[in-house]
Structure prediction request, 698 residues.
Amino acid sequence: VAAAGERTVASVCPYCGVGCQLDYHVRDDRIVEVTGREGPSNQGRLCVKGRFGFDYVRHPDRLDVPLIRIAGAAKDPADCLDPGRARAKFRTASWEEAMALAADGFARIRDGTGPQALAGFGSAKGSNEEAYLFQKLVRTGFGTNNVDHCTRLCHAASVAALLEGIGSGAVTAPFTAAVEAEVIVVIGARPTENHPVAATFLKEAAARGAKLVVMDPRGNGLDRHAAEVVRFTPGRDVALLNAILHTIVAEELYDRQYVAAQTEDFAALRAHLVAYDPAAMAPVCGVSADQLRRVARLFAGARTAMILWGMGISQSVHGTDNSRCLIALALLCGQVGRPGTGLHPLRGQNNVQGASDAGLIPMMFPDYHPVGQDTNRAMLEALWGATLDPRPGLTVVEIMQAMEQGGIRGLYVMGENPAMSDPDVTHARQALAGLAHLVVQDIFLTETAALADVVLPASAWPEKDGTVTNTNRQVQMGRAALPLPGAARQDLAIIVDLAQRLGLPWPAASPQAVFAEMAQAMPSLANITWERLAREHSVTTPCHAPDAPGEEIVFGDGFPTASGRARLVPAGLVDPAEMPDAAYPFVLTTGRQLEHWHTGAMTRRAAALDALEPEAAASLAPAELQRLGLAPGDRLRLVTRRGAIELAARADPGLPEGMVFMPFAFREAAANLLTNPQLDPYGKIPEFKYCAARVERA
Ligand code: SF4
Prediction:
C-alpha cells in the first residue's frame, strides 16, 4: 500500500539481464524506495543494484540541455579523464540548433563520402522500441548496415555458435529451469556478482539436491554450494571441455537415441575427440584426469542437466569454440528441450537479448535474418519504404578500426560508451577524437560524449515507457515513473527528429506504435502485443496463442535448422592471442563486480553502490602480493603492451598465482586501456578475459 503522497509504478530493473520486475515508490518526483515484484525471473527478489541503484537519475551530472562543441575547441582524448575540462569545451544549444547540426553533419558525409562512411552504436540499455528504431534509422537514413551494440563485446561468440549449432541464438530454457535439474554446470560465469538473483535459484537447486558443477579459473561465489569445483587454467576451456566430451564418447555414456534422431555430424566429432583423452588434457587445462572423468560421468549420468555460461566463455579469441563444446556437451547427452535441461548463456545487459532480436547487429535484420537474404529484405523494404543494403556492415571493433583508418567519418552513439568499453581504449579514444562528426545521445557527459560534436540529453530508464527482453526471453514492460529533467527528450523522439531531418517521412512515434511495427517485422513477437504486456507485465517469446504464456523451454521436438537437427561442431585448441612471457608474466582478466555496472556511468553515480565499492583495485593471490612486496591497499602499476594504469592492490585468495583481476567500471583506472583487441574470428568478440601483463609497485 502506497504511503500518503506516494505513487507506485511497476517496471523492470535496468541493470542485468535477469530482468527483475520491481515497483518504484515515487514521492515528489523522486524514487524513494524500490521493492521487488513477483516477476517470473525474480519472484519478489532484487539484488543491491536493483534496490539501491536509482539515484543516478537525479544526479547533478545529469544532462538536461543539448550541448554543442565550441568552435575551435580541440577533441582531446585526455578529456575523457576530466569531465570538467571536457564540459568547458561545449556550450548549451537549443534543440533546433543541436539537431540541425547533428543531421547536417551526417547528411554531408552520406551525400559526399558515401553511406559506408557512417555508423551507429545503439544500446542494450534502452528499450526494444529504441533499438529497433535506431537500427532502422542507420539502415534507411544513413544507408548502411554499420550498426552494432555491446552484444559484440558480450555474447557474440555464444550467439554465433548457437546459431550454427541449434539454429537460434537465444537460451533454450530460463535459468529458473535449473530448479528441476539434477546437474547444473556453471562455467565462465559469476552469477553471485553479475546475475545475483539468478544465483539465488541456483543455490536453491543445490540446496534441494542438485549437483552444482562450478568451473572457473578463479574462486567463485557459488563454490561453497558446489558438488564439484573445477579450477582450470585460464584460456584452456576447450582442452577442459573436449576431455569431458572425450570421456562421454569413449565410455559410451552419450544418449545414442537422441544423438541419432536429433543431431548430425556425430562421426566427425567422435573422430576429432580421440585426441583429447583426459590424461593428455590434464596438464593443458590444469585439472586432474580423475576429476575430468568424474565430471563427465556426473553430467552424462544425470536425468536432467543444464549448462549456464557467461563472458568467461565468450570474451575470448576462441569464444565460439568454447561455446561449441558446451553445445556439444548438452546435445550428446540429450539435455535440451525438457524441463530441467537447457543451454543458457546468461545475458549481461538488461536488454541485450531484445536489442539483438530487434536487429541492432550489422549482419542481420530484425529476428536474425541475414541482410543478404532477398525475401526478408524485400519484406522490410516494403515495410520501411526504403532500399536496403544487402551487404553486412561492420561490427563494433571493426567500426573502431575503420574510424582509425579514416574509412568511417561520422558516428551516432545512443547510450553506449565505447571510450570505456572498447578494448584498447587508447586507440578507441583517438579514433573517436579523429571523427569528422560524432553525435552522442546519453544521460551523462560520458567518456565518449567528451569527444562529441553534439551531445543530446536523453531519457533515463525510469523516465520512459518501453519493453525489454531478458535473458529468459521474457518480454517485459517498463514504465515511466519520473518526468524528464530540464529540456531532456525521449530517445524515441530524438531518433525520429533525426530521421526526419535526414529526409525520412517518419511520423512522431509512440513506444506503442513502434512495438506494433516491430511485430510486423518480427514473427518472433507473434501473439505479444503492447496491450497484453501492459496488462500481464511479461510474456515469453515464442508465444503460440494470444492467451498462452509463451514457450519457456524450446526445441523438444527438433531445431530451427535446415534439417531440423542440431549440428555437433568440433573445436580444436587455440592459444590465447597473447601468452605471458618474461616481460609480461601475469594473465590479466577483467570483469564486473556486484556493486557496479559496466562502465560505471550509472552505478558510480548511485550513492549507496559507490559507497560500497568506491575504488578501483587489482586483485592478486595473497602469496603473489607478498612476493611482489605489496600489501593490500598499496598502489600498484599494471602494465600491458597497450598501456599502464595505477590502482590499489587487493588480496583475493580465490585467484590463482600468476593471475590478476580488475573491474572495468572505473574511469580513473580504465581496464580497457590494457585489454587486447584481438577478435574471435567467428563472433568478432575481443579477448577481454586474457592478456599478458606486468605488475609493479607504483
Ligand atoms: Fe537488477 Fe539484475 Fe539485480 Fe535483478 S539481479 S535486481 S535485474 S541487477
The radius of gyration is 24 Å.
